[in-house]
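Predicting structure from sequence has reshaped protein science. With that in mind, we have picked out one protein's residues alongside their backbone shape tokens:
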Amino acid sequence: MARIPLLQMSGISLTFGGDPVFSDLDLVVQPGDRVALVGRNGSGKSTLMKVMAGLVEADQGEIVVPPGKSVGYMEQDPTMEGFATLGDYASSGLELGELYKVERAGEGLKFDPSRPVETASGGERRRAALAKLMAEAPDLMLLDEPTNHLDIEAIAWLERELGATRAAFVLISHDRAFLRALTRATLWIDRGAVRRREQGFDAFEAWRDKVWEEEDQQRHKLNRLIKSEAKWAVEGISARRKRNQGRVRALKALRAEKAAQIKRQGSAAMTLEAGPKSGRKVIEAKGLFKGFDDKQIVRSFDLLVQRGDRVAFVGPNGVGKTTLLKMLLGQVQPDEGTVSLGTNLEIAVFDQTRAQLDPEMSLWDSLTGDPEMRVSGKADQVMVGGQPKHVVGYLKEFLFDERQARAAVKSLSGGEKARLLLAKLMAKSSNLLVLDEPTNDLDVETLDLLQELLDDYDGTVLLVSHDRDFLDRVATTTIAMEGNGRATVYAGGWSDYSAQRGDVVGKKEEKAKASKPKVKQEAKPKSGLSFSEKHRLDKLPDEIARLEAEIAKLEELMSDPELFSREPVKFQKATEALVERQEKLSAAEEEWLMLEEKSESA
């Protein structure tokens, strides 16, 4: 017997500002579906979800939800007028016998139901909205970035709850580990088209790349056919005008087909501007103690950060990760202990609160009004890596169009605000990069690019994140902050830290155990390579080959005996570039040899 869909969309079309978002879209969600909804920032994921929830009305088409079935949507910015506390909002509409569900969700998601609405942060409001949805338990849950503002323990709780639910759900998330664990089908929005595949997110990237490869092949064939037909038209149309008008019309049709193709959105053209090399020692902390009232942040904490390290800070929300980060940067003084910073440091900070962005300013003014980016006497240019660029051209490199340049920052989505902040950050040279929750709201492709940039970055990185996959890809050292002043240094990323701890992070503990002090496990030496070291070993051969090719080109350029006298500035720059790449090549070969020996010894 055929199942009755929970939601059926037929012939849905939607246009914003003259540009079609969807055209003639058909979509079905069945009972038990666990669907990843993926696509680039700005592709229409959240809009589609709001159409499914009935919050945005389509221009045409029909949406059917069978009688007796319910659809619930987790609001990104919930309206809480009329409610005194977050708990009042989360429990509204529930029967008395169901109120325990809100308390349970509140414990798992770590929000305080007694918190007054007027003093609650945006993250607390989102957690309350998520708790409300989980307590209501509709037949179909629509979840738009539910892991934003959750720490790793809360993400693990939500992952278990969704894994055990009998409800269907459609899920938007940047968290690869979360998507891989939960989804069994994928909806992919790409240039207004929605494709579905009955495999979870784990298979998405291979599917996407195959679709794009086939598309490129078809485009290449079309271009060759147009070129061939155009050549025929130029060479022989005058002699065959009457007999071959059909072929001329076919050529016009081919050109129309090419014109109708929608170009794929490229990747943001992000580059990290590396500053001068810092000293070998970047940060050294000895015997740090810090507390507020009866809460200890760290005690007896030692750390040495050296040039090139990628240090991640993990732990529950509110445990003090950002405070420790500020102590290490000298912005907050410890109660006891010392912090010494290395020499020649140029620090760039990505702030999780986006405090560097004024919501009332336009994107244009946000860049040109930055004192570090301003070009004297040029109101339409910004300084990027020491070179002036037109502000619109620079915004386009980060996938903003010309119309958005004069729009207010507050009109941007979360992902677009993150990209704008990255544009400000990457225009300036640095050798110490501080990233406080950089992954929130970014799409998967931009996260990939950011990870690659961090791999190639010559400086040092301090990173706070709850994204387990991103931590594994980037971190070489993980500092786990577990409350009551405990902060322990582990080698490697998230998976390495979990393995060294010897338990499953996020596993539900009995209350009796929770009331007893934990026995601290010391970091154990690992044999073989960590996840990040394996990743680095895999990438080094390509990096070495690239450096060798660049060195060969520079040597060929400098083999011109007249270059020095003809273009002395160019000769000097080429000489400096050659020395720099030879040093990088030597360091990369040395690193590869060290990692290879370590791998073989295991």
